[in-house]
Amino acid sequence: MGGMKNIFRGFIGMAIYLTTTMLIPALTFEYVDRMEIFIPPDEILDIEIAKGNIAVVIFWLVALGLTMSGLAFFSWSSPKESRRKVVFGILLVFAHCFYLWSYKFSGATAFGVEIPGLGRVIFDFAGIVLLYLGAYALIIVAKIWKLIEVEFGKRKEKKEEKVYIPESTFGKDGGAI
């Protein structure tokens, strides 16, 4: 793939990560703090999202979102089967882990629902975040394995290049000169 196509792919990856890791969560935390869902007849389901220190949460979302977007650019713009792609992929997975870890401790994984006549229910998704972190640990192992594969593949290619004997060493009939 050409250099310009790789750079274009990198910008696409960066735009996707900017949107999904920074823009949507920041807008959600900034503007959605309470939702009311109307249930017929004349009932209202109240959903409150815990908003502790939301400015700190948004700061870390933006900081980690920008970091992930930059890493995504370099990962997506790298040629296939290159060390650079694998290394930036590993760094990107570690950034994902920090991103999820910031969600876990921000209070954003818990929200309460007020059910009329029954009381309040609190949903806590911290366990799901930990499950995702476990999945990312497996992805890190797979990426490190890929790095080892790419590295040994490059070494094998270099070895094969050294064994090549040019035709000028032997005569055209295969005998020594």
Structure description:
This protein has one domain. About 65% of the residues lie in helices and about 15% in strands. The chain is built from 4 helices and 4 strands. It has a 4-stranded antiparallel β-sheet with strand order 1-2-3-4, with no helix packed on it.
Please summarize what this structure is.
This protein has 177 residues and is α+β, with helices and mostly antiparallel strands. Helices cover 65% and strands 14% of the residues.
Topology of this structure?
Layout: H1 3-31, E1 34-39, E2 43-49, H2 54-77, H3 83-106, E3 110-115, E4 119-124, H4 126-163
Antiparallel strand pairs: 1-2, 2-3, 3-4
Helix pairs in contact: 1-2, 2-3, 3-4
The H-and-E topology, N to C, reads as HEEHHEEH
Task: Give the mean pLDDT.
Answer: 78
What does the largest sheet look like? 4 strands, antiparallel
Radius of gyration: 26 Å
Strand content: 5-15%
Strand order of the largest sheet: 1-2-3-4
Number of helices: 4
Low-confidence stretches: none
**Helicity level, as a percent range?**
55-70%
Number of domains: 1
Structural class: alpha+beta
Number of strands: 4
What coarse outline follows from CA principal-axis ratios? elongated
Kindly report how far apart the N and C termini lie. Answer: 42 Å
